[in-house]
């Protein structure tokens, strides 16, 4: 299958270089996500999205992956951590329930 925009599709001799660049962009996106750096993450996703049609033939599977990538880029990178007080209360309640069940079982 030949693309109509053949000048955009990488020639075979450059495909390995393109795949390496794509891997680097994926690593940059991963690092930005870990740092919760939304601007860097969105920029890396845009660059990844620009490389995909240069490396792979456009088809429904590629479109689905590109759409999923864009949806991922739109999600917030913030992480909602539990509040220590709430977690501590839950732990205490669990311990109280266990010790209450142990005492009730020993008395019976």
Tag the structure with descriptive keywords:
single chain; 108 residues; mainly alpha; 4 helices; 72% helix; elongated
Verbal overview:
- With about 110 residues, the protein is mainly α.
- The protein has four helices and no strands.
- Helix 2 runs antiparallel to helix 3 (about 60-75).
- The longest helix has 24 residues, at about 85-105.
- It is elongated, with a radius of gyration of 25 Å.
- The model has no long low-confidence stretch (mean pLDDT about 85).
Query: Outline, from the CA principal axes?
Result: elongated
What's the N-to-C terminus distance? Answer: 77 Å
Unreliable stretches (pLDDT < 50, length at least 5) are none
Instruction: Tally the helices.
Output: 4
> How many strands, which pairing sense, and closed or not: the largest β-sheet?
none
What is the residue-averaged pLDDT? Answer: 84
Q: How many strand units? A: 0
What gyration radius follows from the Cα positions, in whole Å?
Answer: 25 Å
- Proportion of beta-strand residues: under 5%
Order of helices and strands: HHHH
The proportion of residues forming helix, as a percent range, comes to over 70%
SS content category: mainly alpha
Could you give a quick summary of the protein structure above?
The chain has 108 residues and is mainly alpha-helical.
List the helices and strands and how they pair.
Blueprint: H1 15-35, H2 38-55, H3 60-74, H4 84-107
Helix pairs in contact: 1-2, 2-3
